[in-house]
């Protein structure tokens, strides 16, 4: 089936010879294939293969859904289209992938969000003032999504990001102050403390190296001074 499906963005607006399903969304028709949907979604799989009335239905209405969002979902699922996850569709796709149990898409979305956080690590080094504030607010909003949809890898990446700031800085943000529980804040603060301890150890080692270097230089100065005095006496 998948090889026969047109890969254009309008591929769901008309039926091909293998189409066996019409989704009705906002009174508009979306032409699809049960095999494709059942393959990626356990919800659709049960709907089509477990004796529900939808298993023999040619048309299925999806209430409370938006036409553009369902088309976007299908474009990301059909193997010959595979529209990438981006800033514009990620949040909508996350909600739909959760509802329909589409784990493969949910993982792609989490991977995309992790990339966003990872890139933010670098950009915050050159961001100050309002730009930095906006960046942290965006990351905190991502954290709420991570907790709602159980994106554990994303949450760990966000903890890593937030641990660059102390608790006093983060408490200035409403999301951090009002919506996050004490256990999460403890994880951030614990990692922050560890990083500070590591920095202190690193600074201590460098300081010791400098002290040793200074001591060696002092010995060299004393030695050279003594040699110079000895030469003066000879002369």
TrEMBL record:
Gene3D superfamilies: Potassium Channel Kv1.1, Chain A
The BTB domain, residue ranges: 19-86
PROSITE patterns: BTB
Ranges in a coiled coil: 193-227
Keywords of the record: Coiled coil
Pfam families: BTB (PF00651)
The protein's name in its UniProt record: BTB domain-containing protein
């Amino acid at each position: 089936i998948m090889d026969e499906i047109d890969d254009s963005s309008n591929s769901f607006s008309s039926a091909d010879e293998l189409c066996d399903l019409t989704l009705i969304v906002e009174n508009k028709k979306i032409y699809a294939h049960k095999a494709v949907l059942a393959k990626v979604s356990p919800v659709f799989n049960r709907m089509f293969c477990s004796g529900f009335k939808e298993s023999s239905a040619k048309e299925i209405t999806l209430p409370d859904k938006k036409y553009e969002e369902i088309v976007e979902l299908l474009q990301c699922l059909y193997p010959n289209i595979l529209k990438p996850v981006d800033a514009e569709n990620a949040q909508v796709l996350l909600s739909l992938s959760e509802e329909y149990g589409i784990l493969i898409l949910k993982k792609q979305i989490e991977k995309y969000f992790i990339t966003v956080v990872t890139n933010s690590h670098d950009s915050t080094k050159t961001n100050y003032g309002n730009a930095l504030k906006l960046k942290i607010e965006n990351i905190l909003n991502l954290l709420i999504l991570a907790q709602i949809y159980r994106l554990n890898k994303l949450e760990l990446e966000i903890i890593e990001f937030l641990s660059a700031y102390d608790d006093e800085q983060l408490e200035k943000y409403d999301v951090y102050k009002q919506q996050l529980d004490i256990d999460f804040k403890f994880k951030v603060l614990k990692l922050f403390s560890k990083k500070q301890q590591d920095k202190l150890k690193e600074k201590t080692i460098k300081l010791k190296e400098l002290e040793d270097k200074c001591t060696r230089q002092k010995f060299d100065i004393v030695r050279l001074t003594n040699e110079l005095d000895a030469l003066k006496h000879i002369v």
